[in-house]
## 1
Amino acid sequence: MGVLENKFQDNIVVASLDKLLGWARSTSPWYFQFGLACCAIEMMASAASRHDLERIGMMPRSSPRQADVMIVAGTVTMKMALRVKKLYEQMADPKYVISMGSCATSGGPYWQHGYHVLKGVDLVVPVDVYVPGCPPRPEALIEGLLKLQEKIQTERPLTRKSA
Amino acid sequence: MGVVKGDQMILNIGPQHPSTHGVLRLEVMTDGEIVSEIRPHLGYLHRCFEKHCENVTYEQVIPFTDRCDYLASMNSNFGYVVAMEELMEIKVPERVEYIRVIMGELNRIASHLLALGVYGLDIGAFTPFLYMLRDRERILDMFEYTCGARLLYNYMWVGGLSHDLPKDFEKICIDFLDYFEPQISEYNQLLTYNKIFVERTADVGVLPADVAVSYGVTGPNLRASGVKWDVRKDEPYSIYDRFDFEVPIGTGELGTIGDCFDRYLVRMQEVRESVKIIRQALKDIPGGDVHQALPKKIRPPKGSVYRRTESPRGDLGYYIVSDGTPVASRLKMRSPAFTSLSVLDEISRGWMISDVIAILGSLDIVLGEIDR
Amino acid sequence: MTLAEIKVAIESLFPGTILENEELADHQVEFKGDQWLEVATFMKNDPDLSFDQLECITGFDTGVEGSLQTRYNFHSMEHRHKIEVIISHDRENPKVASIEKIWRIGDWFERETYDMFGIVYEGHRDLRRILCPDDWEGWPLRKDYEGQLDYHGIMVPKMKEESGWE
């Protein structure tokens, strides 16, 4: 900030463009409700009356084209893995993935003898935030979402990425 | 309504769709609006539960049974421990039986509240969903107070329980029931006798009684078709024969017997009956030690058992084959939602696509249990 | 009716169907698989037996050298009696008649047993896998099942060697 601070009235804000874009992009991510198993019930409970997700700006969307964040809630099986990839590719940039629960993180309680279970959704899509738990409490999911918001704020969308 | 023959198209619903029944894919043959055939595709949540049961010990199976029917984990546990105790001929203390019944019935109320709230959401009514989930949260608070978990409990063990009831649990439970009973009339005002809801569900998707029995449909779906069959009354397990409660059946009150509205109404009435059972159990609960009859090592005799119990979705059966070792030789879970889903094709022919959503919601399926 | 009376009723019409086996419990009976469709139709339609509810079909693998079995649990809502029927199959070529036309739930139960064990139900209208994907290899619940290493390029086991995670 520096030289221009406090020189103008209160309703003029001076900030770097990256910070401004980060603030604008992070505060209202709409999530793609990809509830697969038990974690989906906790995701629904976090969207319901007691732990309201809409107060932090998150609205559930059923179509991948309208969503920013994909919350993979539940066990991903081999049969479903191909569809997860397809749905991820259908989302528009910028897109993020939250892996909710132990099953989506690493296969969960089914890691040892589950021949049909995908051991972690990060084998098919890139994950930004992992929320552990079986199932994670709604408060844990909200913390994961807030961490994602912090991550989006520190991104630098205008900087040219080196090849 | 007759089936219209013309140019048919295949409409694919799922495996990811906004209705929260889980990952199910329906291949619908339709001419644009009227459905002529539905082919459900399952297996998107097949988590190899039965293979795990052949590789872990009998105690370690209990958390896996939780995760099959995740909306009613107490009842899934209950079914497993009842089957195992029959195989091993263990008699549990009276206090354990009473607590199991209380927890099972509380979970039945929670599961029905979620099913009915989500059904309203499918039809288009958002508010009853929020009201029912608010009351369900109070039940989950009680479970968390007892055993530490909100959704998947690992509470009922073979021969006993994992935790005894905490201090003041009886008072908290009675307070909740006194608060909850008038709420049921509030739900009736909001949703049950709402004109739009009745028009969308009455006379839709009629399931005749003989078709239901042939397709293996059990639980509230079968009772809504007029067949009075409840495992708690007809093949009683635990101490259900000591309680006085009714078994509601469908009467075709606002439509035909066995339509979607009957299935909804039977669940609503069952919630009232569960409240009655919990009140009776809380009055008579004896003292004792819940860990008294827990076996040191579970090593059942050679043999097999098939035992069914009443889960909120129907007859939950466990077929266990033991060969004398601490690990099961075969464990099969007969899931009630599997049979309920198989009847979807038969009762949706000739209805419109939005009616298919209403019929699917009224069957109350949980994909975790179907795919295991 | 008790199990003994049921066995007498079935044996009188279909001699040679019931196989004697001392290891079975009181409610279990083992049948030979060759007349299964006729016996099942009789069990459903006869007014004294009237088994109208097919509760469960379970597949069972008796061991790596042994046979495969299909176990059916029946119940009659009218008479309130139960029976469990066991039919054994040869491991190399397991097959038996399908009963899905008699009890409609047999359709999906038999597809599931086929998916998990590879037992072929002859006469089934559409016998294909129901839980695993259509191009899955092997019969998962058999005792000698070896999982595949990858499925469409995605790795299946947690690690290539089974060590270090006990």
## 2
Amino acid sequence: MRVFSKTALAEAATIVGAATILGFVFTGITGRGVFRTSPAATTSTAEHTITSRFLTFEEARALHSQGRALFLDSRHAYDFSLGHIAGAVNVPLHDFDTTHPMLSTIPRNHILVVYCDGEECNSSVALAALLHNRGFANVNVYFGGWYDWRAHNQPTEP
Amino acid sequence: MKRAERTSIQDILITLVRMALGMVFIVASIDKIADPTAFATSVTGYRIVPQGPAMLMATVLPWIELLCGLGLVLGRFVRGSTLLALVMLTVFTIAVLSALWRGLDISCGCYSQEPNAERLGWWKVGENGFLLMMSVLIWCRSRIAPTLERFLQHQSEALHKKE
């Protein structure tokens, strides 16, 4: 068939082959990606994302009831105003550059629990990565988020 | 004469489109190559592939983008590069549509791997559609457009004629 000529397929296969070799050689030599040896070896955003601890509902509830953690809501201010986990502080991911200075008063080793709506959002993971980058050492992600918290009839505001 | 002039203008336009598409792929690959782990995280954000396969994708895919981009800019392996560009853009668009359909609030991971940059939206579908049209145009017209290969071939033929 002329549309998928042998030349095109052969060239495509050559590119994919060369890319595979280059990809593995480059990451192997530089110690990135699959060849990453230690999470502490690099300081990229994603390293922090991956090393963030994901909390189950039970763990999040325990931290909340003991008052040991500060809950951070990464959703938009409007969503936050409609309802949020009791005691949580709104740090919208989109406005992080303007809102993060208020976090400067929090000790860097304080337990932080970041959440967003639930499994359909990623802003909690992204916010956790940004917080790690700014030196917070104990950032946790409650992936079940607002939906999960509400489904378990836990304390909310307003 | 008119026909020849028209073909010449078409050649130039197709070459410009091809080089522009190539540049887009090169730019898109740089951040991913620099930080494959961040790119893997962006890939897992789409909730289509788990962490392991995403990391393998993050190791190879950016280099495919880079080589395709270089191929399109330099006019080497144009057919193969265009075919891969078509396949990649189609897969990317399906992934974006799928994420939007499921209501995922994630970063695109297309050019920058910063977590709060490039939130996914319908604009991305439009952008990919535009790039797909460019790819189809190149695919349909690459036989007439000047490429580095063709230039080298002409040089070689001219040299043989002199001899």
## 3
Amino acid sequence: MTATTHLPAHEGAGFKISEWVFTTDHKRIGVLYLFGSMAAFIVAGLMAIAIRLTQYNVMTLDGPVNYFVGDFSKSLTVAHAYDTALYFHGAAMILAFLIPGLTGFAANYLVPLMIGARDVAFPRINALSVWLFLAGVIMALLTFVIGDKPDIMWTGYPPYSIISPGNTAFYVFTVHLIGFSSILGAVNFLVTIIYMRAPGMGWNQLNMFVWTIFAAFCIQIVFVPVLASAVTLLLLDRYVGMGFFDPTRGGDVLLYQNLFWFYSHPAVYVIFLPAMGLLFEVIACQAKNPIFNYKAAVYGGIGGTVAITGEVWVHHLYISGMPDWIRIGMMVTTLLISVPVGLMVISMFLTLYKGAITFNVAMYYAVACMFLILVGGLTGIPLAVTSLTVNLARTSYVHAHFHFIMGLMATYALFAAIYFWFPKLTGRSADLPIAKAAFWLNLIGTQVTFWPLFIIGVQGMPRRYYSYPLFPQFEAYHHIATYGAFISAAGITLMIIGWIYAAIRGPVVGTNPWGSKSLEWTHTTSPPGPGNFLKPVVVGPDWTPYDYH
Amino acid sequence: MRLNRKLWTAVAALVWAGPSFAYEDTGGIINPTTAWTDTWNDVLVDLFVIGGLFAAVGAYLLWRYRATGPGQVGTAPKVNLDIALAWSLVPAALFMADDFFLAARGWSLWSIQRTVPAHSMEVNVSASQWYFEFDYGNGVKSDQLVVPVGQPIVLRMTATDVVHSFGLIEYKLKEDMLPGRITHIWFYPDKPLETFVTCVEFCGDGHSQMNAPVKAVLKADFDKWMAEQLTKKKSASLDAPRSSAAAPAASAL
């Protein structure tokens, strides 16, 4: 192999679309995942604005929403436009942005580089995986052009999803495509991490991010098939007239809810764990310290989370008429999540102890995440307690809680990663004043949006209401929340402009601008060429990716 | 030895704090609504203490250990086995202690919420797109829930079409209403109140408008209302449009 093969792919031979369509290179596949998930993020973000506009007034029959989605098609009422926007926002943000952003983009780009591998174990399966995902995104976006848009929320509970005027099949096939992509990704990355680590690299020398991806894909491979079966049964109920979830034919409506959350609670950790992994990488590098109590964070924190993840799903069904004893049992298991998560948080905070902390934009987002984890995690504790949830369930308190974890912490961890590895992807830095301005707009905007929702949630504001004439006292809070959404929309716009500018004109930086000790910075170029490393990587028994002193 | 005893007393106090919590007595009935607020306030204190502690430590570390010049590296001491174990087992034990404390508090509130007092008044509720219907069991069906003050009320609930949920916001109670299943909640109207129940599980485009009045009235007023309903029913037993449509589905369950 000669050095010329290490020219940055898109700067060397010029851009050829066939090189991207038929690529089996994990880095290009990662970039395809990034573009697909950001497309879903932008469209689902616009839906969030539509949702906020709808709730701006108590009654929105002639409110500002009409300028946005109300007149989208004459067949839509405001209520129906709102319901379809909610469906798309939820389904796309979780299935097409967060999971593929973290386990698609970040895992694809970083894991082989971090373990010193030339690619993943099955590059062609990897290519199939990304194209299944992109097909899923296209399938999801197609719901904007069909007349009978799905309006069944991202949960798709029957019997509503069976009798809904919306097209449930689009929901089911989107889940099938993205789910199949996840299962293939899981097989690929588990094999890659187990068998393709650089010679000499033991399990206790792995990057935290590699561990969290390993954990996330263990969860995916066990639980995604359950979701796939749940939505398949839904499809059969709706279009073939079977009665799995139809009580008039001997079916049970709660069966679906159990199957759905049996996957979808673990899915929270598929998002949360890789987000934590990315934060560990950024914080350790910016503090120039090893991870504090690495083994406790890995085996107690990540391992504990994986062990407990499948035994807590009933906390999504606390008011769904499940037997009393199981609601109490899962209250205890849900509360115990605080133990592994607490160990990870302690490791993360104490990694700063006696560090030499420098602040780049990635670190701004990471620091924000440290505090978002506290708010998101602690507000989850009342929701773990069955009897408190009896009042809090289905209010905007729940909505604010999971947005702090998913919409803010996990999303900002991904943004932190994009800024941190931007020099690796492009050879240029995105650490510009525009990025700092965007950060502050994002942080302030989201806080202005979600704190009012906590407050009115405790007072009873129900979720998924496009109008709320019974609760006129909450209108001022909805006004504030809507202003916040516009502030963060400005932030996101600025951030994306900043990325595009930086990719073209950003300052060219060296191979290792942050002074990291991890293989993707120390052993290859920015961006790495095909095959990743100039010569095979071998690490010694004392090597760690956090060996700063 | 003395320290040991103190520790055990503290642990015992922590374990007993939940179940033995004394609620205001209202003729032998513990009001689940006020009990919710008590538990919530205690849990909030717990959350603010933990959150405040972590936030303060995090902010301090970020400020104290910021780099003062270029090229610096951290000087964190090596984590030996003792430190590693201490920083795993002690926090794990503390988190677990707090978890079990919260679980105990939650469970005692749950027992109140789920133990229906004897002699509660029973009302059957059925939900459809997009209305609630209340059946008093004596032939009276109503589109509003009228209940006497000072009487525990238990609601036996089901749905006729899709999943709905009974959101009794003022009484801090919710439970889903499912086709093919019967669920229940009970509440204690301790003073006259005009409020509403609103649907809290997405059930279609009319979800936001699905609600019904809930009126807790004095016993005399309730008796008067019930008598009116009974005479109305006798005089107009033929025109009951909505109720008769919903009845077969509900009784089939």
## 4
Amino acid sequence: MHRDRALALTRLECAELENVFALLLVGSFIGFPAPPSFIALELMPLMEKELAIFGRRAYDSKDMLGELLGVMGVD
Amino acid sequence: MRVIFFAGKGGVGKSTIAAASAWQLASEFRVRLVSLDPAHNLGDIFRRQVGKGGVWLSDHLLVEEVDLKERTKVYLDREMSLLKETYSYLQVLDLDRYFSLLQYSPGIEEYCLLLAMEESIRSSEKFDYVMFDTPPTGLTLRFLALPSITLSWIERLVVIRRRILEKRETISKISRVAGEVEYREDGIMRRLVELKERHEKMLKLLNSENCGVVLVFNPDPLSVKEAMRLLEGLKTIGLRVNLCLQNKVRAEDGEIAQRTEKEITPYVPEGTKFFRVKWENGISQDTNYPLYELKTDLITPLLASGERS
């Protein structure tokens, strides 16, 4: 039980970091300062997973609180 | 091997000075002269078709013109085919159109310039001098600043990436579920490290003693102002200026030439050499005058300014 929760929490943290990583690379789309575009270009072929998370996070963003509570085990 | 950049405002005569220097140096050394300026005129100066792969003007002198448009296209085509493999399901989105726009994306031109410069230097083991005729000031400063900007971005990305990998490892350790992938080999991290090493190498070269700028300007206020801006930019980048060369100085310009040098002096490190190239009448009158055959001896100031092989 505890192990499951620790796992879920770490997974969430990891997904969050992956989201941030993708956001840093393609942030120029939403007005973030962006790295030289060729860095993004060179990493993009390897970033399918991160981009998928990135997209999902954007989609889920209206229910962030729900997700957080879910991870913390609050019903 | 030594690397020299010829920089200055458009029209001051950087290409001509670069060509003349290369021509003169080639009597003693093996010289490669590369034009990075999208508006090439080395071919016009030497009155030869340069074309792909460059042209040998003597046993010791290779002249090349980098085709930036072609290079950008080749680079983007390669990246595009890689991306298409990964994101083939996105083809409905018309990736081609997106990529044709990418060539206008800020930074791509600079990056391709940097790649061209890197390639020229890397393949120049057999040369004593690699000389670059540079594009307009703004573009030159941006592409020369690229390695250090890139490095600071990569460093940040590496920190985040490392944390992601640590988390992934923790997850796979806790779960130990079949099917959970172990993330020891991470493609993104490997790519980041590759990029980092490449840019570190470039930065080290640009900041080394073997690399320097010959600043070209005229006794006129506009080119001097631009020279100052260029010098400030170069200081930030960490590139050393080896020689300040005042070109097109007419006989009656003595006073102005002196004032100009005085204005520039505060912007260069103490001991930086100044040199004047006199206006040669023949150039403007005779259309068949070989522009690269300047009467002024350029070897002496170049060697004296620390460009000794």
